[in-house]
Design a protein that fits this description.
The complex is a heterodimer. By secondary structure, chain A is an all-alpha fold. Chain A has helices spanning about 5-10, 10-15, 20-30, 35-50, 60-70, 80-105, 110-130, 135-155, 155-160, 180-189. By secondary structure, chain B is an all-alpha fold. The longest helix of chain B is centred in the N-terminal third of the chain and has 23 residues, at about 40-65. Classes of the chains: A mainly alpha, B mainly alpha. The interface between A and B is large, with 41 and 61 residues.
Chain lengths: ~190, ~210
Amino acid sequence: MNHQRIQNELSAYLDDELSPATQEQVAAHLRGCTECRQLLATFQRNRRHIAALARPVPPIKAAVMTQVRAQAALPPVTVSQRIGILFRNAVLSLREGAQALKKTKPWVFQPITAGASAVLTLALTVGFLYLYPTGTHYEEALDFYFGLHTEQVADSPLSSNVGTPLSSDMINPIDTLDDAELFDLYLEE
Amino acid sequence: MSVATFTAYIDTYSEVESDSIEDFDLEEERELVLQCQNGDADAMEVLVIRYQQWAYNIAYGLLSHHEDAQDVTQDAFLSAWQNIGQFKFKSRFSTWFYRIVKNKALNLLDQRQRRKTDPMEIDDTQPWVPLDTETPERLALYEERKQLVHAALAKLKENHRTILVLRELQELSYNEIAAVLGCTLGRVKSRLHEARKALKAELEKFDYEW
């Protein structure tokens, strides 16, 4: 390898990432090339400068673990598991909704309906007990109306005719004719 | 630094394992992720303890702002928890999680740039934990140097800054970087080389004895 190619390998040489054969070639070149030795020394020195930037880690563990433990109730999952969880949650939501609907009482069993029904029932009961026409006044009124009705029935020409044969003067002669006789009568007139 | 803050730092440090991420047992990590997918917050706490340091440093490397990096890290963990069900074990959890951190940090940067505010405001309100052997003069030198490195990183292209943070600050392998960035190994190799040369050019612009 020529000088330029060797120089391009110096970085990997420093990191011991070359094959043994190439490593040996570079080492041999370095023994005779001041420029490459200086470049390698600079790389080594700068490595130390960057490494010196390392600093002790601040106390982050407590802060991280506080949040991790807070989230531990919801274990991390894969994407497919997430989709499964979303689907399951959707099904559960639907099921809960259905159960909530089942638990909902029909309007007739709603408290307001029951209350109104109770008030109405009470009113009717009170009305029946205190306002229903009972006693002597009621009986007198009934007697009056029954008597009146009886008189009306007795005076009724319809009821008085029941069972009594009709007299001949009460019968219209036309009513006794059949259709042929009525037709002859019509022709005669 | 108050006593309470210092105590919190000590507590945090005591929980962070010093192994690299690649040392984590894959089977154990898989088991933890599975438990998280079943909603186990305790398993998530283990992952937070394991990855908070790396996640924060990626965010801080990209944002150069302590509070923003803290917010992004917390947000990334919460996103990971909320979306852990989508993790299909096609990569390491760390790779998947780093991608979340990187995306959230870059989104925040993008929002800042759209608001035309200074995206790379150097934040030094959070005190660096000093080593007993360091003198005040050396600490002051470190702080100045860090500010310059932050400023140089801020001037780089976004993809150069990201790959440098992942490699130099986070020490991810080329394979992990390729997985986080969603590109080929060859692209990682060439982009990292370009990024290192770009950083070298930016740092050399400062009148500073590196």
